[in-house]
């Protein structure tokens, strides 16, 4: 009953005119950037962080959540119409969606993606509303050693699961942790890694790092690719609406997609790619029309798209209750919280219930807006794909520079933006994941603080880190998560050598 009351109060906050406007801007921008290949919700939130610095925290976070939901849906439009997923989570959708578009059934493919996203997103938001309070009740019992162990789990799972190589992921994480050491040590008051530059005494700004790595780095990477494959946009022919048979074949995949997306998205090593491919595999096994798979089966679009949006809500469970980001966009949203002096976690539910429940309630509204907006505006999204890339990325560079100057006018800050941009380009060029750098910078100082607190309480005894059952279990999970990718990789090599 308490959840229903809290959700009702949150709905009253979300329905305020300004918050509705923020939600509308968020889902519109999110869909637009999801449609454009290579520009995802993480990049968009990173660009908007410095611009929203002085805006209302509740409205800005509602807009960021709308961008996340919209970006997850928008990627399906590109995947279906040009076989180029705007988001990595839309890769499974492209397998059948583009075949449907080439067969003149692009309308039903876009419709089942939109409705499936709405159904699964709504169910997942309900799940978020009811699961979050239970996790908060558990989290309030955590001591400093438990929080440190939890952050170690986040470090390991995020770095080991982003990208193809665990070593590269851990390297990215240590870059972020090193950047987190820059500034004044809160315990001793001594400067660390500031190299005599006064501007560095405040530490590295998360917004500058995020904008440099995601926006500037992405622009440089796109410029560096000389040979571009010409992308042919498939026209949306025939009716946009689904037939009775399409509905019959879609509703079960929507529900199964939610079943895959929400729980896996909520895991520290979740993300949206895993549940979408699991959903696609399940639909391929369960379909009554196996001959259509590979030629344009509607189940292969309905299931993955539902899993895609459900995982977005699942990602918000650990973010809001524990302060742990499990995706690049969640890391950007965590940076958004910290920009306003807010730390997601159990205390935030007690200190700012209006903000947290307003954000959760706004997700229902964002889902409805996505459904109403996307089908009528398919023509607009198709035209958006015609924007020349040089114009697009030149605009992103200008926007990134102006946003950084507006948030913190300093030559040092612009220099750091340029350095982080080059770093982001090199990481993209050599396939190093970017998200662990941001996670390391945000969570590194918090993990250091909790570790020092735990050691102070135990008078410097390091065994305190494994004396608590919670911390011992979490550190065990972190160790398994660290070792498992290397074992699996060696097993696959051994099997390949045997074959």
TrEMBL record:
Transmembrane segments: 20-49, 61-82, 109-135, 147-163, 169-188, 200-223, 316-335, 355-379, 391-409, 430-447, 467-488
Record keyword Transmembrane helix present: yes
Domain DUF112: residue ranges: 20-438
Keywords: Membrane, Transmembrane, Transmembrane helix
Signal peptide: none
Keyword Transmembrane: yes
InterPro entries: DUF112_TM (IPR002823)
Pfam families: TctA
Protein name as it appears in the record: Putative transmembrane protein
Species whose genome carries this gene: Afipia carboxidovorans (strain ATCC 49405 / DSM 1227 / KCTC 32145 / OM5)
